[in-house]
Design brief:
7 helices, alpha/beta, 257 residues, single chain, six-stranded antiparallel β-sheet
């Protein structure tokens, strides 16, 4: 029997790199390489053997990585929100107010309000939900990311509200950093647009610490512009919060299907 046929098959599994590594043609460190990958990248696992993972690349071809550079997820991934670990990150807090609205609304308070409402909705659906903060306290960016990474979050959602010099600028934006999180961002963004009905500013690459240093699926949401007096009035209304929470929730449902 070949080493390949002896290998444990785990086609539903996935590995997340916790350090950069070469992608090898064969399960040997001296083998030719087909490229490199960086920390946070994720790949489906074809098989595993003797300290190596055979992974599937986006091109459909295969490569090998050392098991020392990656962490494997559970194999039998169930669909749906129930049982998923979801980290909600209310932006800012404590000494960090975030942006201040035209009428004095503090970003740190409205992000917490939104996160708390989403927390309750996700808990009722059976998710394991973790808040990076549950009160008006300061939590560093590295601590927020560590909460996601150490809990092996199935999804990390950072919640913010935006600001611009032009007070007429309005709408919501969804950011991702790692390429494999684009679909996650797109699905959530689409549902927010559907629910809020505000200007859709799109899905964009964002170099933000909490998504850049995250080894788990992670997005950052800017749900509206507090610098717009008209939009600020809507943001503080209960109906806006209800719609925003429903949009994020439905986006997560779509992502876990």
């Amino acid at each position: 029997m070949t080493r390949e046929s002896q290998a444990k098959r785990s086609s539903e599994a996935e590995v997340t790199l916790h350090s950069g590594t070469n992608l090898y043609k064969r399960p040997q460190s001296g083998s030719d390489t087909v490229g490199t990958a960086k920390a946070g990248d994720r790949f489906p696992v074809v098989s595993e053997m003797d300290g190596w993972y055979k992974i599937r690349l986006e091109s459909g071809t295969s490569a090998y990585i050392s098991a020392k550079a990656a962490q494997k997820s559970d194999t039998a991934v169930k669909k749906g929100i129930k049982g998923k670990t979801i980290v909600l990150d209310p932006g800012h807090g404590g000494t960090d107010n975030g942006t201040t609205g035209a009428y004095g609304t503090l970003e740190k308070l409205v992000t917490l309000k939104t996160a708390n409402a989403l927390y309750e909705k996700l808990k009722k659906a059976g998710a394991r939900v973790i808040l990076t903060r549950n009160s008006d306290t300061y939590v560093s960016l590295s601590e927020r990311t560590a909460i996601s990474n150490t809990n092996h979050a199935d999804a990390f959602v950072s919640i913010h509200f935006d600001s611009a010099e032009d007070s007429h600028t309005r709408g919501h934006t969804t950011y991702y950093y790692h390429a494999q999180d684009y679909d996650f961002a797109r699905l959530v963004n689409n549902q927010i647009t559907s629910r809020l009905g505000t200007v859709d500013r799109g899905v964009k690459f964002g170099d933000f610490h909490v998504i850049r240093e995250n080894t788990q699926p992670a997005i950052l949401l800017e749900l509206g512009y507090l610098s717009s007096p008209a939009e600020e009035k809507h943001i503080v209304e209960k109906s806006f919060q209800t719609k925003a929470v429903a949009g994020i929730y439905n986006g997560l449902k779509a992502y876990f299907q």
